[in-house]
Amino acid sequence: MGKGRVLVVDDEADVRKSVRLILTKAGYDVDEADDPESGVTLVKSGANKTALSAIISDLNMPKINEVIVVPYLRSQFPTCPIIVVSGSKMMERSAKLFKEANVEFLAKPVNQEQLLGAMKRAVKEA
């Protein structure tokens, strides 16, 4: 059995691929989506019966922006830990805002140690 199931949401295929490789190598089961709505549909389809342990999401994507992405994911999965991975220029302000909302914030490019540390904390919290 793996360490948990993770939904990775990012419109950049290269970012999804690198996050997936890091997480699968570490023993996590990973689902990928290029936008939050597709991710929610995938998770709720029931194809993978493992409970969702965490969500890793970008902030700025074509179909949804940084103001609503976290509230949208929270509305769909209220108890699931969220880790935001972003290259946003508003990083300092965003990081403070997300810390207050109990959302972990990591800067792009993704650092393997930081990502695995954030996942370990998220799975422990879940």
Named CATH architecture: 3-Layer(aba) Sandwich
Domain count, please report it. 1
For the largest beta-sheet, the strand count, sense and barrel status come to: 5 strands, parallel
Shape: globular
Helix content: 40-55%
Strand order of the largest sheet: 2-1-3-4-5
Explain the layout of strands and helices.
Blueprint: E1 4-9, H1 13-25, E2 28-33, H2 36-44, E3 52-57, H3 69-76, E4 82-86, H4 91-100, E5 104-107, H5 112-125
Parallel strand pairs: 1-2, 1-3, 3-4, 4-5
Question: Would you kindly provide a written description of the structure presented here, covering whatever features stand out?
Answer:
The protein has 126 residues and is α/β, with parallel strands linked by helices. Helix content is 43%, strand content 21%. It has one domain (4-125): 3-Layer(aba) Sandwich (Rossmann fold). Helix 4 (91-100) links the parallel strand 4 and strand 5. The radius of gyration is 13 Å and the shape is globular. The model has no long low-confidence stretch (mean pLDDT 87).
Brief overview, please?
Helix content is 43%, strand content 21%.
Provide tags for this entry:
globular, Rossmann fold, 5-stranded parallel sheet, alpha/beta, single chain, 126 residues, 5 strands
